[in-house]
Amino acid sequence: MNVFILPFVSVVLLCSVLATDAAIRNYKFVLEDTVYTKLCSNSTILTINGQSPGPTIVARKGDLVNVDLVNNASHHVTIHWHGVKMPRYPWWDGPEFVTQCPIKPGQRFKYSIVLSDEEGTLWWHAHNDWSRATVYGALVILPEKGDNYPFPTPAAEFPLLIGEWWKADIQEVMEEFLKSGGDPNNSDAFLLNGQPGDLYPCSKQDTFKVTVEFGKTYLFRLVNSIMNNIMFFKIANHNITVVGSDASYTKHLDSDYITISPGQTIDFLLHANQTPSHYYMAARVYASSGIFDTGITTGIIEYAGNYTPPTNLTVPDFPDFNDTHASVNFTNQLKSLADKKHPVDVPQTVDKTLFFTVSVNLRNCSSNTSCEGPGGGRLLASVNNITLLLPNTSILEAYYNNIPGVYTPDFPESPLYQFNYTGPITPNLQDPENGTRVLVLEHNTNVELVFQATNIVGGIDHPMHLHGHSFYVVGSDLGNFDQNVHPQNYNLKDPPLMETIAVPRNGWTAIRFKANNPGVWFMHCHFERHVSWGMGMTFIIKNGKGRNAQMAPPPPDMPKCT
Ligand code: C2O
Ligand code: CU
Prior knowledge:
Blueprint: H1 11-17, E1 24-38, E2 41-48, E3 57-60, E4 64-71, E5 79-82, E6 108-114, E7 120-126, E8 136-142, E9 156-165, H2 170-180, E10 189-192, E11 209-212, E12 217-224, E13 230-235, E14 240-245, E15 248-255, E16 258-260, E17 265-271, E18 278-286, E19 297-303, H3 324-332, E20 352-363, E21 378-383, E22 386-388, H4 395-400, E23 433-435, E24 438-441, E25 445-453, E26 462-466, E27 471-478, E28 497-498, E29 500-503, E30 507-515, E31 519-525, H5 528-532, E32 536-541
Parallel strand pairs: 1-4, 3-8, 9-12, 11-19, 20-25, 22-23, 24-32
Antiparallel strand pairs: 1-2, 4-6, 5-7, 7-8, 9-10, 12-17, 13-16, 13-18, 14-15, 14-17, 18-19, 20-21, 25-30, 26-29, 26-31, 27-28, 27-30, 31-32
The structure holds CU-O-CU linkage (C2O) and copper (II) ion.
Copper (II) ion (CU) binds at residues 462, 525, 527, 530, 535.
């Protein structure tokens, strides 16, 4: 880990963002082209400090973490601190062409991760092109000094990142499917902490292993860092206890499997209470439709002690690949801890109601090109039927400096055409509009946002992610949302506080949040192919009254857009 001593953020800046007893931590990230051998072949990938997954950042609640990023690679990059609200500092949030322009080869940029109320597990990842396939790592946020977890102190704790490996160059994978109009190629393996595990070739030596002692309890910080799939995770013979998600504590939930969306984190306790032996921990796809990959990545829990380890470990018995009930049921059981020390602050009244359809779309190909989407069409995706076209400059910079012509402030608050969203789809509903539209909100607006997944191109789940805020998930169900019926059953008592939530296939999910973070914040599906197809939009939250409600000025080293 590269920790250096001299803080580079000016004293003035620090006073404005740092709580009194919080610390400043410094990391150095060097983006490099690194040759890795996996699955019996060599690939050159983008890494941070030669590692993929990259370094784990460890901080305490409320700390300020400086990350000095140096680009020594052949490709440009931006980094996003997934789930960190970055109050007043969208400049360091990371999404390319939303809050910044790329850090080009040979350039550097000093990010600061502005932690506030987050506590638990988050992660960081590249936020340009498909670079996050290999450029990602864990962000562990411990309780404040002198404070404890709201559960017995574990004997040890481990980040556990589910990743993905392509033998091919990831940039080429991306360019190829965007050109063809079809689906991207599947990866060649799923990974646990960078290792495919026993069920893939050439992996035995490097399989991720954890040693446990019988009778003790361990904390695992599970992150779904893969590109295009919701995953089921399971440990053979063991139940686990979920204690947190998305850097917020949850009521304890005992389960024998986990469903985790790309972007989401789940903190769980493992009680080492089975016959001492070796057991697989494993992850594989949940897929309601779309990309399908039967691979299983495995790691091993090894009990300490004298016994003959089994020669063949049993692969855990997963829910079926398309078991929507198992997927949705796990997620719906997550509830905020909601105790005295961790109160729930869900808006009880709403100032602004938003209704967003989320769709995969299909557009006819121009006559002289043939596309590889269904029926020879081109696959796209949209929010409220708008396919996002990112500008080649930063929306944040355009907003801050009043640069015209970059975006239009007219993102629709509800769909322009209403239809039976989850019913049969006629071809005229398939083709979206292109746009770079933003939705402007007054500071401190209490927002209710209902995501409605549609059946266009057959429908699929969408793990929706909001930057700059956490949100409470107050309701979700299959079918069409009904404003006259469903709000009566919202959970306004102990809804889970998340940054990413999977909207079920042909279903809806309602979230509430206070738009209290002035700036420019991206909202998008965390399936990488969907956001590449345009499933994203941007919120602009205006400055409020008082100094703490004003967006900070840009840092002096913002990468140039031209
Ligand atoms: Cu983890 Cu905008 O993403
Ligand atoms: Cu999606």
